[in-house]
C-alpha cells in the first residue's frame, strides 16, 4: 500500500492534510483500516466540538472490535463526513479519499507528526 | 500467555500466498480473513466458502468397549449412534461443568472419532485418557493425523460432487463416510458450523494442499471463496450456535446453557457428572436459570461479549457473543438473561455499550435459518 506523500501521519494511524485557510482534513490510514477489518460504525465528533491532539474524539467499530479514534491535532471541528457515517465501509474502500472523517480548524499541531516515509517505517517497525 | 511458537497447519504457505490476515487462535496461526470478512460471510450464505479447520482436535477411540466407554465419559448416548452417523454431545466434569462440546463420529462398530475444539483438545484428550481406565478401549491422539477442510454453503454439494464418486445424496446431515475426493482419501462428513449445508473433509495433512486446490478450482465457477475464522464466527452467531468460551464454559452445566437435551440420563450405565447433572436438571425445573436469547440492536453500535444486559436500570444478563450481522444488516448478540426478560419482544431491554444503554429487541434463536 502507498501512503500519499502530501499527507502527514500520527503514530495512532490518522492522516492529516495540509491546512487550507487553517482547516485540515483527517482520516485513518489504509494500514489502520486493513487492521480493523470491515468498519461497520463510526462515531465522529460534532461540528463545533473542540478536539485535542492525541486524545480520543470518536470510535471506529469493525466486525471484531471497537477502536478509539484519536485526533492528530488540536482544534475545532468544522465538518464531519456524513457519507462515512451512512456508509462506514468507505473507510476501508477509500481511506484517503471518500473515507475521510472530519475537518478541523487547527489551533495547535504536535511536533511529532510523521512524513509518509516516516509513517511507513513506523508501520514496518 | 504461552510463549511457545504458534502451530501452523499444512495449508499455512497457501494461506500466506493468498494474502490471508493471520491470527493466533488457541495456539495456532490461523487465517482470520483473506479480504473482506463481510464478503466471505456472504459467499457462504449465497454460494460457498472454503475453510481450513485443521486446528480442531481429533481423538480416535477404538476397542470392543469403545461404545460403553464413551457413554461413561460423555453425557450423550454414544452407543446408540449408528455406524456412519455423528452426534453433537458434551464432556462434563464431575460437578456438571462443561469441559467442551464435541462432535462424535462412529466410523465402525468399535471405532469413533471425537472432534474437540482446538482450545480444549488437550483437556478433552486428558479427560478421555483418564476416564478410559477399566474399559477395553484405547484413546489415541490424532491431532497431527488430520487436516480438516470445510466447504460450506448452498453450492457446496455441487462442488463436491464434481470431485467425488461418494454418494453425497445419501449422506444425511450429521453423517460421515469414507471416500475419495479429488483422488485424496477423506472422511466426508456432512457437518459444519455455519448454518448452511456443507461438508467437512478429514484428510492426511500431506493431501491437504492438493484437496484445497481442487476444491478452489471446482468452486471457482460458482463463486467459492476462501474464508477465515472471522466470518466463521459471524456465521455461527447468526445460526445461533454456541461457542465454547462464550456460550459454554466450565461454570455452566448443559442445563444452564439451555442444552439439557444433550444429557441422556436414560442411557445404560453411569457417566461422569450424572449426579451433579441430575441436580442441575431439577434446579432448572424449579428455578429457571438465565436463558440464552438473541438480541437485535436498534442502533448501529455493536454489543460485545461481556457487556451487561440491562432493563429498568438493573443488570439482567450478559452478552456472550456479539457482532454486526451481514445477513440482518444490524448488530446482533447472544446473551444469557434472567428468565423474566427472556421472552421474545420483552420491552425495555438494552445493552450497556461502554456506558450508554442502547435499546435491543429480544428474539428467539437462531437469527438465521437456511431455506431447505
Task: Write structural notes for this entry.
The complex is a heterodimer of chains A (125) and B (372). Chain A is of the alpha+beta class and 125 residues long. Chain A is 20% helix and 35% strand. In chain A, strand 2 and strand 3 form a beta hairpin. The radius of gyration of chain A is 13 Å and the shape is globular. In chain A, 43% of the residues are buried. Chain B has 372 residues and is α+β, with helices and mostly antiparallel strands. Chain B is built from 8 helices and 20 strands. Chain B has a 6-stranded mixed beta sheet with strand order 11-12-13-10-4-14, sandwiched between helices. In chain B, strands 15-18-17-16-19-20 form a 6-stranded antiparallel β-barrel. In chain B, strands 6-7-8-5-9 form a 5-stranded antiparallel beta sheet, covered by helices on one side. The longest helix of chain B has 13 residues. The chains are: A alpha+beta (125), B alpha+beta (372). The interface between A and B is medium-sized, with 12 and 16 residues.
Strand percentage of chain B? 25-35%
- Count of β-strands of chain B: 20
Mean pLDDT of chain A: 94
Principal-axis shape of chain B: globular
Mean pLDDT of chain B: 96
State the oligomer: heterodimer
**What value does the Rg of chain B take, in angstroms?**
21 Å
Order of helices and strands of chain A: EEEHEEEEEHHEH
**Mind telling me the C-alpha Rg of chain A?**
13 Å
**Sheet bearing the most strands of chain B, described?**
6 strands, mixed
What would you call the structural class of chain B? alpha+beta
> What global shape of chain A is seen?
globular
Number of helices of chain A: 4
Percentage of residues in strands of chain A: 35-45%
Q: CA-to-CA gap between the ends of chain B?
A: 44 Å
Supply the helix-strand structural class of chain A: alpha+beta
Strand order of the largest sheet of chain B: 11-12-13-10-4-14
Instruction: List unreliable stretches of 5+ residues of chain A.
Output: none
Span between N and C termini of chain A?
15 Å
Domain Lipoyl-binding (chain A): 23-105
Family (chain A): Belongs to the GcvH family.
Cofactor (chain A): (R)-lipoate
Subunit structure (chain A): The glycine cleavage system is composed of four proteins: P, T, L and H.
Amino acid at each position: 500500500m502507498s501512503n500519499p506523500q502530501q499527507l502527514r501521519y500520527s503514530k495512532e494511524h490518522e492522516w492529516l492534510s495540509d491546512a487550507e485557510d487553517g482547516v485540515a482534513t483527517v482520516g485513518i490510514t489504509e494500514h489502520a483500516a486493513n487492521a480493523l477489518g470491515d468498519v461497520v460504525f463510526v462515531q465522529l465528533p460534532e461540528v463545533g466540538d473542540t478536539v485535542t491532539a492525541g486524545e480520543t474524539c470518536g470510535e471506529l467499530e469493525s466486525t471484531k472490535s471497537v477502536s478509539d479514534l484519536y485526533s492528530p491535532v488540536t482544534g475545532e471541528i468544522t465538518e464531519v463526513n456524513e457519507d462515512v457515517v451512512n456508509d462506514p465501509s468507505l473507510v476501508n474502500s477509500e481511506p484517503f479519499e471518500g473515507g475521510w472523517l472530519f475537518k478541523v480548524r487547527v489551533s495547535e499541531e504536535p511536533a511529532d507528526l510523521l512524513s509518509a516515509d516516516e509513517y511507513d517505517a513506523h508501520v514496518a517497525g | 500467555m504461552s510463549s511457545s511458537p504458534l502451530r501452523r497447519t499444512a495449508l499455512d504457505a497457501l494461506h500466506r500466498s493468498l494474502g490471508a490476515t493471520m491470527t493466533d487462535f488457541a495456539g495456532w496461526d490461523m487465517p482470520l480473513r483473506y479480504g473482506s470478512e463481510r464478503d466471505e460471510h456472504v459467499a457462504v450464505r449465497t454460494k460457498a466458502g472454503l475453510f481450513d479447520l485443521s486446528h480442531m482436535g481429533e481423538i480416535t477411540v477404538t476397542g470392543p468397549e469403545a461404545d460403553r466407554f464413551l457413554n461413561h465419559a460423555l453425557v450423550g448416548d454414544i452407543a446408540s449412534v449408528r455406524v456412519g452417523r455423528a452426534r453433537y454431545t458434551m464432556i462434563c466434569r464431575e460437578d456438571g461443568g462443561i469441559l467442551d462440546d464435541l462432535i462424535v463420529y462412529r466410523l465402525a462398530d468399535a471405532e469413533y472419532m471425537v472432534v474437540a475444539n482446538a482450545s480444549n483438545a488437550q483437556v478433552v484428550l486428558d479427560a478421555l485418557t483418564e476416564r478410559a481406565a477399566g474399559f477395553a478401549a484405547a484413546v489415541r491422539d490424532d491431532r497431527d493425523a488430520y487436516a480438516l477442510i470445510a466447504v460450506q454453503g448452498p453450492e457446496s454439494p455441487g462442488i463436491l460432487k464434481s470431485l467425488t464418486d461418494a454418494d453425497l445424496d445419501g449422506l444425511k446431515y450429521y453423517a460421515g463416510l469414507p471416500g475419495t475426493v479429488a483422488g485424496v482419501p477423506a472422511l466426508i462428513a456432512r457437518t459444519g458450523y455455519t448454518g448452511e449445508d456443507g461438508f467437512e473433509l478429514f484428510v492426511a495433512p500431506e493431501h491437504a494442499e492438493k484437496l484445497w486446490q481442487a476444491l478452489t478450482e471446482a468452486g471457482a465457477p460458482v463463486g467459492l471463496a476462501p474464508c477465515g475464522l472471522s466470518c466463521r464466527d459471524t456465521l455461527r452467531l447468526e445460526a445461533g450456535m454456541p461457542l465454547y468460551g462464550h456460550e459454554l464454559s466450565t461454570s455452566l452445566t448443559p442445563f444452564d446453557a439451555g442444552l439439557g437435551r444433550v444429557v441422556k440420563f436414560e442411557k445404560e450405565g453411569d457417566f461422569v457428572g450424572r449426579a451433579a447433572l441430575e441436580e442441575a436438571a431439577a434446579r432448572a425445573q424449579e428455578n429457571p436459570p438465565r436463558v440464552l436469547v438473541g438480541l437485535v440492536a436498534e442502533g448501529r453500535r455493536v454489543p460485545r461479549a461481556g457487556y451487561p444486559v440491562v432493563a429498568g436500570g438493573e443488570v439482567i444478563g450478559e452478552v456472550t457473543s456479539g457482532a454486526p450481522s451481514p445477513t440482518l444488516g444490524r448488530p446482533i448478540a447472544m446473551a444469557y438473561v434472567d428468565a423474566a426478560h427472556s421472552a421474545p419482544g420483552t420491552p425495555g431491554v438494552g445493552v450497556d455499550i461502554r456506558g450508554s444503554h442502547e435499546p435491543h429487541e429480544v428474539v428467539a434463536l437462531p437469527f438465521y435459518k437456511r431455506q431447505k
